[in-house]
Amino acid sequence: MSYKKSKIACIILASGNGLRFDNSKSKLFYKVHHTPIIEITLKNITKYLTKDSIYITISKKITKNEKKLLLKYTENQLIYGGKTRFASLKQALKNINPNNFEFLMIHDAARPTFTKNIMIELLSSMNSKKYHCAVPASRVEDTIRKNNKSVKRNDYKYYQTPQVFKFKFFRDNLKKIKINPTDDLGVIERNKNLKIKYIEASKENIKITKKNDIDTLKKILNFNIKYGSGFDIHKLKNGSYLSLAGLKIRCNYQAIGHSDGDVVIHSIIDALLGANNKGDIGTYFPSLKKYKNISSVILLDEIKKIIKLDNSIISNLDCTIICQKIRLEKYKKLIRKNISSLMECDEKHINVKAKTADNIGIIGKSKAVACWTTIKIMNL
User: In this structure, which of 19, 234, 241, 250 has its CB flanked by the most CB atoms within 10 Å?
Assistant: First the structure.
């Protein structure tokens, strides 16, 4: 489910210092499963919103590589934030044409695991046209005290992001505000005509504030871990190159197959489909004329869309290529690099092994090549 840019703009606030996390490092680029926290947030948000509607505020300390990473998830320029969260919000709004949008969503980059239910309810509530805003909120459950005296916890709520507003209503109230609110609802909370839709907040929707929050984040992500395996084998014939992982390896053999016979990509496709309970490669690409001699890279690109790989994290991908006479040792690094590029993930996630069959069977007689792939993937 995604919403057109004509309806909703989304500001991702990512310019804070995160001093409670670590003075020496940016918490938003702290890696969990080899993936920066902010990238987990952006992978999650792009399940629902198009990249041309996303605006990201950044710190002036950000590196070129970090900018490059963020630009994968937006088609707009990155926006340097201010000294406070509120100042960053105002700076972001200066870069958005309100005439192009009906709604405004604001989200803290340090909340990577907001739930599908929260997002759907927020957007559905605003589409109903009944409310000025929709926010996740819940009553305080723990005992709270002020000056060592208990207070009525039923009188208190805690709030989370993302929060969604009617764009014009929010902008008009922003011009009048004289305080520095700690969240976005604070901009309009004093409006007497305000109509709020409260969405039940989620304990999964944690904000990464301190270092020990990382352990909680890992536990939440681990609930979404899935494993898959894939195997492919093709006969060989005399030729000039062998297709492996989208590369053409020069040799005296060529794979026999309906497509280009790339056993590495075919095994990766089956591993991805297995991890997502989506059948096998033959389900999507039967032996039809239109797939004759087709590049397996094209097939992989189709599968990536089907399983929504952009909204997933590959934690580990392990390929074992089994081939007798074609020595692949010197190609392993290149194959690993190309798999990383095809899967749009860090090389640290990828492992490639090259084995012979000790002259045993059809592979050992150089009449076939095979690949076995296992994958560990997290769907957000």
Answer: 234
